[in-house]
Recover the amino acids of this structure.
């Protein structure tokens, strides 16, 4: 019985070590979708109003930067708060 408990404890330690990688994988989904939406809508807006292209492009890169910050936070947070 005690050998099973030791084996179970060893398995739970290895699972805790991999949770940071799983958390980053899940955290990268949102910014990936967000970047696609930002660029897709900005291209659509530029096609509809070509005269507003400089303003749209500025807002596009601002939205891209904000989405990318979320991805970088998802990468850094597992290192700041280890399991």
């Amino acid at each position: 019985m005690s050998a099973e408990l030791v084996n179970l404890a060893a398995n739970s330690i290895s699972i805790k070590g991999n949770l940071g990688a799983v958390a980053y994988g899940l955290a990268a989904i949102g910014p990936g979708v967000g970047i696609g939406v930002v660029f897709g809508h900005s291209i659509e807006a530029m096609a509809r109003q070509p005269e507003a292209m400089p303003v749209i492009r500025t807002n596009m890169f601002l939205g891209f930067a904000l989405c990318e910050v979320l991805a970088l936070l998802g990468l850094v947070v597992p290192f700041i708060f280890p399991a």
User: Anything to note?
Assistant: Residues 53-80 form the longest helix (28 residues). The chain has a mean pLDDT of 81.
